Amino acid sequence: MNTKNIAKNLFAGLLLTTAVGAAMAEASYVPETKFVSTKTRAEVIAELQQARATGQLLVSDRDQDVKAVASTKSREEVRAELVQARNNGELAISNQ
């Protein structure tokens, strides 16, 4: 087989793969079952407000421990500490 035929076959294969991929990307997603709510919007909002009022609604586990703290440092002082921590290699890469 010569290189001209190999190039044609390779191009035809890539073209076919691209066409199939594009056709699949355009396929619409239809869920198997349609969700039907049994409550009105007003009922859901009332339940949400009640959960907030009774403390049953938490965004995360940390919500119970969050307290307002007034800063004693200026913005420039905090920025200077950040630069110093970066220079010293004290910053963790992940947010754990």
Helix/strand/pairing class, anyone?
mainly alpha
Q: Characterize the main sheet.
A: none
Question: How many strand units?
Answer: 0
Radius of gyration over C-alpha positions, nearest whole angstrom: 29 Å
Number of helices: 3
- Strand fraction equals under 5%
Q: How do the SSEs run, as a string of H and E?
A: HHH
Roughly what percent helix?
Answer: 40-55%
What key phrases describe this protein's structure?
signal, DUF4148 domain-containing protein, 53% helix, mainly alpha, flat, DUF4148, 96 residues, 3 helices
Structure commentary:
This protein has a domain at 1-27. With 96 residues, the chain is mainly alpha-helical. It is flat and about 75 Å long. The protein has 3 helices and no strands.
Give the topology, please:
Layout: H1 3-25, H2 41-54, H3 75-88
Short description, anyone?
It is built from 3 helices and no strands. By secondary structure, it is mainly α.
